[in-house]
Amino acid sequence: MSKELNIVFLIFNPIMSAFFAAGFYLLWRTQKKSRFIAVLVFSYLMRALCFLILYVSLKYSDMVLRQISNAMILITTALLVVAYAQRSHQAPRFKLLAFIFTVTMAGLQYFMSMDSGLQERGVVINLGLFAIFLVFLGHIRKAGDENPVAQFLGIQVVIAGAMTLARPLIILGSAFFEMDYPDFYWIFTSVSDAIVSVALAVGIFAVMASDVMEKIKAEALTDSLSGLLNRRGFEKRADAVLFGETSDRPAAMVMCDLDHFKKINDSFGHLAGDRVIRAFSDKLKENAPPRTLIGRLGGEEFAVFLMANNSLSARKYAQDVQASFNAISAGLVNGEMHPTASFGIAYANEGDGLFHLLDRSDRALYQAKKQGRNCICEAEADSGQAGVPALPELRPA
């Protein structure tokens, strides 16, 4: 009965692996830029082939095929690690994985030369797989993903490693108690391989589904032309961090508006207008300190939320953006017009709501427009009126 059950699982494993390979392939067809999915397809295809070779090697007692199947199971497990590393934008630890593979294969080859080396080979291959799962856990930990789905995958890897480590313990225990272990060991190996394969595939599918949902949510909050947050995304995130953002250097809102933008669209076309928006957006991002929120509120209007205690003052940030944009703007519309931008700054007071802060910075922006455009004005904290214009040398010639 144990032999029949073992054969069932040896046949079940390649069928199941081929099924998961097909699933990953269908996903890859829709997301060909995600190369890690192609790695997963190859991994599960190789896993299916590995079990077929293992079945033949057991049936005909072919040690060469057995060694090939051992190599393939190590490689297919390592490919899962590589795929996850690529998915989380990490450099896969190829050298460490190659070292584990080499040492494991050398140990297997050594014990294959011994008539009584079956138990030793079982210990070596499973310790090699366990080491690969440790590398997998290292990548998951390094990713630092607090998403519950990613943490679920981490749990799956821990379970897979534990089941892999249990196999050499069974072998060592049977040797210590002088038990005849092969039937039980092969059944446990076949069943645990099936569980590990399913658990990891489900965990990876869940992570990929979570990635897709996060991408959809991000796209819903992002302006496609500028790559910045749209109004909804900006207000949602800025409102979340504004509460309690008061300190010696308070949070600040910088409202920006491209001057005479309608004239640019009317005179040079919307493609030229889009080019100006993208160029200005790039300057907002390039000059921004870490953790800065930048949004395109609509049309030619932008908002920048500088967090509290930022080392870069709001005025200095606006001056840097103004100078860098002025330096490149002359060439944006065939040199016939020099696009500029105006800036209004408001600093957060204790108890300020987001819309109050936006309103005060917008009033400062209006004052900058009145003072001739291409200006930087600050709202006075108490009165809400605008203050000082930009430095004269930053004004257009």
Beta-strand portion reads 5-15%
Order of helices and strands: HHHHHHHHEHHEEHEHE
Q: Average the pLDDT over all residues and give the rounded result.
A: 84
Instruction: Based on Cα principal axes, name the global outline.
Output: elongated
Task: List low-pLDDT spans.
Answer: 382-397
Secondary structure tally: strands: 5
For the largest sheet, list the strands in their spatial order: 2-3-1-4-5
Helix content: 55-70%
Task: Reconstruct the topology from this structure.
Layout: H1 2-30, H2 35-60, H3 63-87, H4 94-112, H5 118-143, H6 148-176, H7 182-220, H8 231-242, E1 252-258, H9 261-268, H10 270-286, E2 293-298, E3 301-306, H11 314-329, E4 341-347, H12 354-370, E5 376-378
Parallel strand pairs: 4-5
Antiparallel strand pairs: 1-3, 1-4, 2-3
Would you mind describing this structure in some detail?
This protein is of the alpha+beta class. Helix content is 66%, strand content 7%. It is built from 12 helices and 5 strands. It has helices at 2-30, 35-60, 63-87, 94-112, 118-143, 148-176, 182-220, 231-242, 261-268, 270-286, 314-329, 354-370, and strands at 252-258, 293-298, 301-306, 341-347, 376-378. The chain has a 5-stranded mixed β-sheet with strand order 2-3-1-4-5, with helices on both faces. α12 (354-370) links the parallel β4 and β5 (376-378). α9 (261-268) crosses α10 (270-286) and α10 crosses α11. The model is unreliable at 382-397 (pLDDT under 50).
